[in-house]
Amino acid sequence: MLFNSFRFLLFFPTTLILFHLLPKKVKGVWLLICSYFFYMSWNPRYVVLILFSTLVTYAGALVLQAVRDRGESARKLQKLTLIACVVLNLGVLFLFKYFRFACASVSAALSLIGIPATMPAWDPILPVGISFYTFQTMSYVIDVYRGKVPAERNLLQYALFVSFFPQLVAGPIERCENLMSQLKELPRPSYASVRHGFLVMLWGYFMKMVIADRAAILVDTVYGAPEQYPGAFIVAATVLFAFQIYCDFAGYSTIALGAAEMLGIRLTQNFETPYLSTSVREFWRRWHVTLNTWFVDYVYIPLGGSRKGKLVKYRNILVVFLLSGLWHGARWSYVLWGGINGVFQIMEDLLADRAKKCEKTVPDSFAFRCVKTVGTFVLIDFTWLFFRSNGIRHSLTLLGSIFTTFNPWILFDGSLYTCGLGMKELHVLAYSLLILLVAGLFAHRGVRIGERIERQPVYFRWLVYIGAVLCILIFGIWGSVYNASNFIYFQF
Amino acid sequence: MNKNLRRAVGIALFLVLLALSVCAADAFLDKTDVDEKYKQFFASDTDFDVIVMGTSHAYNTILPQELWRGHGIAAYNWGQGNCTLPEDYYILQLLSRYTTPKLVVMDLFGFVEFAKVGNGKYRPDSRDMQRVQFDAFPLSRLKYEAVTDIFDDYDNRYDFLVKFAIYHSRWSEIKKDNFKPRDIPQKGAGFVLGFYDAEGYVESSDGTPRTLETVGVGYLDKLIAYCRENGIELLFTYVPFTATQENRDAAATMEKLLGERYGLPLLNMMDKGLVDYRTDPYDASHLNYIGAAAVTDYLGLYIAERYPELVRRDDPAYASWDRDYDHYVDYKISRFEEGKLHNNLLLLYGPDFHGDLYFSASGPTAEDRLLGNLIRRLGESVTVHDTADADGVLLEVTDKRTGEIVFRDRTH
């Protein structure tokens, strides 16, 4: 069940209304039922996987808690328990997400040295949200191992922590210390939080349906036929893809935040105007915050972080980014995407001293910050090309086309209107991006437009809400696409 | 009023305003021309005795206005391109809420072929056409049942229930014309003007029955049961066109199935000599206006003979049908187009108009084979005047109701 589906439109209000009406004792159970229903609406069989992950980490955490105080002798058991939990969790993730990729890679490597290999028949459909809840359960069990949080004894409570539907399939990847306590309390949501949550959801829907899904049409058209749309078409599509991926992911995350807030739960902000960053490093502090902090806390720091010299630090950065790439998908182009981002970050670190010297000579001005922001965007957008491509070969084809075809005039002569989006559609996209930029600039300066709106009189608020809903419904990409030519039924 | 109650009222009021705004947007973006097909159905103050159903073959060929004019039969055409029998089954039930049909004329072209596509209940390549048909009905439990049953393998099936889900993206195509109602007084049908050269085609209904195991057969059971329960007569037809052997086999298959399983006949019109294949086909699968009018006339005779109670010509309750027919003739006048001599001649078929054609019998026009065939086909509806000094061809159309010339065009 997608957030932008009819089912969710029925599911969420029902969940919300009953959540508000039910007595506090059963609110948690109701949310758990709804969360499992939400998850099972994708594929009921895969409920086994989330149950498995939940039970393994629940039991593992209890064991870790039980043996923690038994001294040095229990230390080994603790480690073994943690390793077992992590291996079992990652094992399931590997089996369903990476097994085929691994086999294909091994097979390709073997065929390079002349050894024929056959691919196993196992090719499951990727269970939705598996990367998110696997990381969430792992963070929980590691935190219990580290003694940061106590093991949860109430299985239902823990199952809700793992499966809480707003963040189940696309994050944010929550930590136990933030989410568990709120789910235990389940305070009655205030009227203000319901109202604010609704507004946040609307903003998320706007990002996802009006911007991301519209940009996707042009991007898919160009990336799907680079020979037909060479050079500047690919540049334009790659720039648009930067906004598509942001609005898709951040939009979905924002809907999750809003939905959770309407239920009285505050989730972690996952995106903080990343494209206004002035360095690659800053970008990664603002992009998919919960995943990146996860990698920092559970991979980067355990590997030594930046404490063991520059070389180890750079190795650690590379490892984190390569893993982050792999987390996004079982494809070498994702790994390459992660690797390039890691290299950018290392280069930035290597050039930091020179950059500081340079900055001293240039006064800090709006123009200079703009240059840095645009420069960072260009670097990040370059990496998106690898992320969006269908593989390394495809990305090289796209890059080759960019550097071998000189056709910048297509940006001005109306050729862009032939890439799946007509003139009016592109205009809507441009206006929407402008709204996104303005909202981003305000947010970057700490001004929350949503909060400002909520302080306005009721008639103004309602006008904004209704206007926003209509804007999303009319300009959003949803339902079936209306095609006038398909409706010419008068002939036959 | 306490705080909670005030908030509850506030939320309710907000939701009402939101719903009204969405409805207003829906009305603004809704495809106004689609409704035209069904406008006369829902606006009618009389019952429709005969409901015509089926695919584009039924839609293009069986013309209710001609049925009324020729035989006094009050019919409405619910045929739609690529419509399947499962769809017809539900649509019949939905439209029966608004009228009480005595007879359903169900053309079975497509019953065999369409049932092989997708889930056998609908044609995935024609969802937009089916959407048009289902759009005619307001949301109801039956409509929900129909949509969830027929489109059971289609993720976006809820679009059929909420029209806004499809028409919301129409904002970029809104034009002034959309707000001017298009008047199509054909009582659901849609005749077409044009030609397909099928000279030499030999009409035949010889086909070999095949084994038929399709999803549609189950719906045929249901449809027949529904009609019997509700006292509705069923007349299955197969209208003529330039049928392939496969089409003839399909018709023979249906004939056998209907006879053996239900004891019902199939009115197979593929060998009745109703169609002149030099002038009447529109394309390889459909008939143009002349073909349609000729088939409709035959069907009218057939119905009037077997169901005399359906002849309403002298029923004062149906006086409005004559006015509607007048309106239909006006509509036909609006279909005359400059420079389209052959198409214009098609419209002369029948008793409404008389055409005078002026051209030189020794000029190049006389060599026009299609023109010659059309003149023969039209018989007394057209008079040819040999004018040796004629520049091209002049057509003058007289409206027989008034005796006035309603169209004049010179074609070079």
Can you offer a commentary on this structure?
The complex is a heterodimer of chains A (492) and B (412). Chain A is an all-alpha fold and 492 residues long. Helices cover 70% and strands 0% of the residues of chain A. Chain A contains 19 helices and no strands. Chain A has helices at residues 6-21, 24-40, 47-67, 72-112, 130-146, 155-163, 176-185, 191-224, 232-262, 280-286, 289-300, 310-328, 332-350, 352-361, 366-388, 392-404, 423-444, 449-454, 458-475. Mean pLDDT of chain A is 88; it is low at 484-492. In chain B, the strands form two sheets. Chain B has a five-stranded parallel sheet with strand order 2-1-3-4-5, with helices on both faces. In chain B, a hairpin with a 4-residue loop joins strand 8 and strand 9 (404-411). The model of chain B has no long low-confidence stretch (mean pLDDT 89).
Counting DSSP H or I runs of 4 or more residues, the number of helices of chain B is 15
Order of helices and strands of chain A: HHHHHHHHHHHHHHHHHHH
Largest interface: A-B, 29 and 40 residues
Helix content of chain B: 40-55%
- Biggest β-sheet of chain A, characterized? none
Rg from Cα of chain B: 24 Å
- Oligomer category: heterodimer
Rg of chain A, rounded, reads 24 Å
How many strand elements of chain A? 0
Shape of chain B: globular
